[in-house]
UniProtKB/TrEMBL annotation:
DNA-binding region: 29-48
Record-linked Gene3D superfamilies: Tetracycline Repressor, domain 2
InterPro entries hit by this protein: Homeodomain-like_sf, HTH_TetR
Keywords, ordered alphabetically: DNA-binding, Transcription, Transcription regulation
SUPFAM superfamilies: Homeodomain-like (SSF46689)
Name of the protein in its database record: TetR family transcriptional regulator
Location of the HTH tetR-type domain: 6-66
A Pfam family this chain is assigned to: TetR_N
Amino acid sequence: MARPRVHDLDRLLDAAEHLVVERGAQGVTVRSLAAAAGVPNGTIYHAFGSLGALLARVWLRAASEFLDLQTELADRAGDPAEAVAAAADAPAAFADRRPDAARLLITVKKEHLLGPQVPEDLAGDLLALDKRLVTLLVRLAERLWDRRDAPAVEVLTTCVVDLPTALFRRAFTAGEPIPEDSRVRLAAAVHAILLLPPPRKD
């Protein structure tokens, strides 16, 4: 069997991404995915080796594109507090570009997509993504407070991860646009949190 073309692989990943957000990871089968993408079942195995590896690739693609955008938005902001607010707003900005990918990252637990069938090279790529997020948070902490310790990073995790998830989850779950009011309130909450410096480690 000839190797699938790049656009075929993209169509497979797009179809899998959409199925996951509509049905959940457990609702995606080789047969349903092949039908949605319009490819033979064998294409999935030939291109990715297993359904588990394909779903891991779906997560990796979405998370990588999201982190690219989040980093770009943060770096574009001149003021450190505005950089944190921009990073926090990144899920909404990403949803404007890639609605299914944004819904995937907010509403589907990574553990539901990843399993024992994930190849070692993909596992390494996923670990590198986690490190990229930590690196961004550390850079933001250095810009704000000239600190890179755990308490400082924890405050920024609240701003960049916890608050957007809480404020945007309902809209993402319903497949609706993020209300502008939620984005404004998120920015206000982020700026309020940043008024207090992080605690010092004892």
